[in-house]
Amino acid sequence: MAFVEGYTVFLPGKWDIPTFLFSYTMIGVLPALFVIWKVVHKTHVSRCLPHYDGILFACGHQWRKLHEISFFEDERMVVDGYEAYCSTTNSSSIL
After folding, report:
1. In 3D, which of 70, 60, 2, 65 has the Cα closest to residue 31?
2. pLDDT tens for residues 27-70?
């Protein structure tokens, strides 16, 4: 899609520099920004692809299935601790 977006500038008699730049500049800018980001932040390009062998793995990390994930486990532990604390102390001393 990026290459055919501004195809009309290549038709006979339709050449227009601003239209060409508007249509095709990002094709070069985005890869350049990607490389600059990788160099500045010293990150690597991951070559690991997820695959399925009964369990999903990605670069050595085991992916959990959605029903196995407890999204608010840490928050629940805080609330449980607060409730346990409140049940063992006088509630009027907390306020």
Report:
1. 2
2. 999 999 999 998 998 887 665 555 544 444 445 556 667 677 67
Q: Where are the domains of the chain?
A: 1-45, 46-95
Distances 10 to 2, 6, 28, 60, 87 between C-alpha atoms, Å: 14, 8, 18, 48, 77
Instruction: Tell me if the pTM is above 0.90.
Output: no
Residue 20 in contact with residue 9, Cβ under 8 Å? yes
As given in the structure block, the two tokens for residue 61 are 């990390």
Closest CA to 59 of 73, 45, 70: 45
